[in-house]
Amino acid sequence: MVRTLAQRERLAVRQLTNQGYRVFLPLHLKTRRHARKVETVTAPLFPRYLFTILDPTRDRWRSINGTFGVDRLLTCAGEPQGVPRGLVESLIAAADKDGTVHLDYALHEGQSVKVVAGPFAELIGRLERLDGKSRVGVLLELLGGSVRVALPRNLLTPTSGAA
Known about the structure:
The chain has helices at 9-18, 87-93; strands at 2-4, 22-24, 27-34, 37-44, 49-53, 70-73, 75-76, 79-80, 112-115, 124-131, 135-142, 145-152, 156-158. By secondary structure, it is mainly beta.
């Protein structure tokens, strides 16, 4: 695992890839608000961290520490520190071709859900309708009333409370 400089994850990926390392930067959808403008952007799932595949006995891994955008390679007892087996593979399996991880939660009608990105980010509502795999109907409490909206399924996460 590689720790990057603040907001330099993509630079570190480019530099490490140019050096021949195989790297993975998991991304997720994030809502950004600025000056009355709301937009959904991709951002690192683990800010300041990315994964690289190394064989410590074969690869010249110490050069990673001198790479533009990299703070340091995480080590333990002088050797690169690994992550639990299957973690990166499961993140890659949940990602699209651009590296955006879509955590597909088990959703069911009547469930309380939270919108995680987009113009309705952070609002909690009740799942009314599942329209196949990609879209859902949600009843949101908005401006003193109930509003029905259709949203992409990947923008919702289940909540523990009632809507």
